[in-house]
User: Fold this.
Amino acid sequence: MEDLSHVDESGAVRMVDVGGKESMRRRAVARAEVRMAAGTARILRELPKGDALATAQLAGIMAAKRTSELIPLCHPLPLTHVEVTLEVGEESVEIVAAAETTAQTGVEMEALTAASVAALTVYDMAKAVDKQMRIVDVVLVEKTKEPVN
Assistant:
């Protein structure tokens, strides 16, 4: 098993020094799902376009921008793009969040934070009608980097 990147030889936590790394174009995509009763999903689908889901989308974008404030050892990154999409299924809402930057470190934490906060926002908006909702499968699905031309 590789050493933990945020722990030094003595076991103390540390911020990773990325100062010597080359800036690269980086992209990460994360996914989360909020499982719910079919009736709850129907209610969300029938709302006027943009209401509840637009709020969750904006919450995810805002969260990505504040990731370094929420997770102590994350570097603040100059995000060049954040996109959060939500799709209401028969018994769930699927959230996909993508974050992009040109920097010396990756954006997977920003994508994961965006997906998580968007899921929490959906949960918050629907909790009054569905006490059995679950946020599941928060996962990184893609991470890429390429040289800056």
User: Anything to note?
Assistant: The domain at 24-147 is CATH 3.30.70.640 (Alpha-Beta Plaits).
